Amino acid sequence: MTIQQIRYAITIADAGSINKAAQLLFVSQPSLTTAMQDLERELNISIFNRGGRGVTLTGDGEDFIRHARGVLQQYDALADNYSTASKLKKHFSVSTQHYTFAVKCFAEMVKQFHTDEYDLAIRECRTRDVIGDVISSRSEIGILYLSDFNRKAITKILNENDLQFIKLVDCEACVYLWKEHPLARQKSIRFDQLREYPCLSFEQGADSSYYFSEELMSTEEYARAIKINDRATVLNLMVALNGYTLCSGLICEELNGSEYVAIPLEGDPEIMGGTMEIGYITKKNMILSKRGERYIGEIHKYLVQEHRI
Question: pTM of the predicted model, to two decimals?
């Protein structure tokens, strides 16, 4: 088994088609087919179900690709850190809950490249998907938060999948709303003051536990509640409906604009779920790539600039 075969298999799995994967890899379709047949013969398993509409993973194939992503990720990190071939194409992916600082720091990391040869991705997604992307090695790093409320449930999942959580910063709960909201000029806001306004929260899927919520106080009964999938819609509904969301207060004005404010939320810390401990997850004993190191470095730099650490 070679790294090239592993890279081929992952590309086919992601593309869902040998023909499309061959185009992405700049190899001929017969050569790619032969390489996969040789790999399957060596491993004595079938990785792909082949059909007229493309390929899908077999049960053995799903298990193989999951492990293969980790192997390839570590190989690329080693090559990235120790290879003198500066023209190698650079790969890096991060998955995150909906944090503008995570996007801002990703952009700052990208600006440091001195080559046009890179393949990068940042995914703002549901909490379950943030964790799943790191488990499957789709992403090297995942950004999320822990609190007294969700810590036990999330940590159990991380431990079961050999992942680790590394804290970046502690944040107190804030109310995030439009600067023309009736409560926008308050120095702090009580929860009872919010009852007549719609609470905006990121949708986590019908089968997701409230432990995956991106907002504190996910078990509260809200008279008016709206689920949303993206940050732009949250901002729009803050203006259109005087909606609000509960957040860390760690807001990047450069990306979100200056039309919104974060105001401390008053209340019993135990009822609110405690402090939001924002951090990142990776596989245990994993070597971060240079891109990963630079990305985390940019986050630390941003937090220092914001006087958070």
Answer: 0.75
